């Protein structure tokens, strides 16, 4: 009986030890298994290096059968978008000053500021609808040569051709970016007056020089001096008389009620309404009107020079003829010629006729009825 119990105890102990050994083996195998995170943490080039070493490759030793050479691999450098073929960025680095750079002291001006056509750069618009305005670059489209610029006056974001922009430094941008006096008519008239005074001063000096030469020649030849002096005096007085400059003719009036127009004055109210659309509510005089913004705010004493006409985007909207023989007539656009900036228009009063008018002669009409 004791022998039977001893055999049973041995069998049980043997089974327990086998189970423990199997469980330990399984646990060890599970612990050593690689996970997806382990593969992700190993760079791809390490896998390739391990494969090469497995095939007998050693660093610094030549490869090949007959002429063994240690060939260096070609490393391709990523070229920035927009960098043309053959352009070498290292040539720009050679032009940079190689001397030690010290941090600028308080009050020092940075004269070596790099002007870059990229986000954060400062520009001046030299042509187009936003001429003479400063802005900050927010994005660049090198494929289409377009630049996204946030204007300093009005804080509006517009897309402008990069060929219409001039890069400026931060100092000029901070000084003139929001200076409305540059854009005012009084400032421009003042600049024209200075230019006119400079021309007059130059002509005055030239006339004095001519008179001095004539007086010297008259002293040399005294025969018939009186008649000659009279003639010279008469000629010099005629030279001093300048023809009065003719004033340019006034622009024809085109203001009408219920027209949708665009506000283009950059200095009015600090440029708050620049490039915004509004409606003419009343015409006070041929060149002055009252406008209402899209937010419902009324603007009084708006001059015609502050506005420009708008051509509707769709042909289903009404237009009004604002210049020419059919001024004040309402109609619709049948066909557009964007290359020549004109359109074929059918007027309500002449339904059997079609007229070809320039874009400047028509404007978007939002009155909703016959004029």
From TrEMBL:
Q: Which GO terms describe its cellular component?
A: spliceosomal complex
- Subcellular localization, as worded in the UniProt entry: Nucleus
Q: What main location does UniProt list?
A: nucleus
Q: Where is the composition biased (Basic and acidic residues)?
A: 105-114, 178-227, 235-244
This entry's Gene Ontology molecular function terms read:
nucleic acid binding
Report domain G-patch positions: 44-90
Disordered: region residues:
80-118, 178-252
Q: Entry's InterPro entries?
A: G_patch_dom, GPKOW_KOW1, GPKOW_KOW2, KOW, Rib_uL2_dom2, Spp2-like, Spp2/MOS2_G-patch, Translation_prot_SH3-like_sf
Keywords of the record: mRNA processing, mRNA splicing, Nucleus, Repeat
Q: Which SMART domains would you find in this protein's record?
A: G_patch, KOW
Any one Pfam family here would be GPKOW_C
Could you tell me the superkingdom of the organism this chain comes from?
Eukaryota
- Signal in keyword set: no
Q: Name one GO biological process term.
A: mRNA splicing, via spliceosome
Q: Which PROSITE patterns match?
A: G_PATCH
Q: Does the keyword Flavoprotein apply?
A: no
PANTHER family assigned:
G PATCH AND KOW-CONTAINING, G-PATCH DOMAIN AND KOW MOTIFS-CONTAINING PROTEIN
Similarity field: Belongs to the MOS2 family.
Q: Name the job this protein performs.
A: RNA-binding protein involved in pre-mRNA splicing.
Protein name stated in the entry? G-patch domain and KOW motifs-containing protein
Native organism taxonomy: Eukaryota, Metazoa, Chordata, Craniata, Vertebrata
């Amino acid at each position: 009986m004791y022998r039977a119990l001893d055999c049973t105890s041995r069998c049980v102990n043997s089974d327990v030890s086998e189970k423990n050994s199997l469980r330990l083996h399984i646990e060890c195998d599970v612990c050593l298994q690689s996970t997806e995170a382990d593969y992700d943490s190993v760079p791809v080039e390490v896998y390739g290096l391990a494969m090469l070493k497995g095939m007998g490759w050693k660093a610094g030793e030549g490869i090949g059968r007959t002429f063994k050479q240690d060939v260096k691999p070609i490393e391709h450098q990523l070229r920035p978008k927009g960098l043309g073929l053959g352009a070498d960025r290292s040539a720009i680095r050679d032009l940079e000053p190689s001397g030690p750079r010290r941090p600028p002291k308080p009050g020092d001006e940075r004269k070596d500021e790099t002007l870059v056509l990229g986000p954060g750069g400062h520009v001046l618009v030299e042509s187009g609808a936003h001429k003479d305005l400063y802005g900050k670059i927010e994005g660049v489209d090198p494929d289409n040569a377009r630049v996204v610029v946030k204007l300093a006056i009005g804080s509006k974001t517009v897309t402008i051709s990069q060929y219409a922009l001039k890069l400026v430094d931060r100092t000029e941008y901070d000084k003139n970016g929001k200076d409305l006096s540059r854009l005012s008519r009084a400032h421009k008239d003042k600049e024209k007056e200075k230019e006119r005074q400079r021309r007059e001063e130059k002509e005055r000096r030239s006339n004095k020089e001519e008179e001095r030469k004539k007086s010297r020649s008259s002293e040399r030849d005294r025969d018939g001096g009186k008649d000659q002096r009279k003639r010279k005096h008469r000629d010099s007085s005629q030279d001093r008389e300048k023809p009065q400059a003719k004033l340019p003719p006034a622009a024809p009036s085109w203001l009408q009620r219920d027209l949708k127009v665009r506000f283009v004055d950059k200095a009015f109210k600090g440029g708050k309404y620049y490039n915004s659309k509004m409606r003419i509510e009343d015409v006070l005089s041929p060149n002055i009107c009252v406008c209402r913004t899209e937010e419902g705010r009324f603007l009084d004493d708006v001059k015609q020079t502050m506005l420009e006409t708008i051509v509707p985007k769709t042909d289903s909207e009404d237009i009004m003829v604002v210049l020419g023989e059919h001024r004040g007539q309402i109609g619709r656009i049948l066909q557009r010629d964007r290359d020549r900036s004109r359109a074929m228009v059918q007027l309500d009063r002449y339904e059997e006729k079609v007229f070809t008018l320039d874009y400047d002669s028509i404007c978007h009409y939002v009155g909703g009825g016959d004029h």
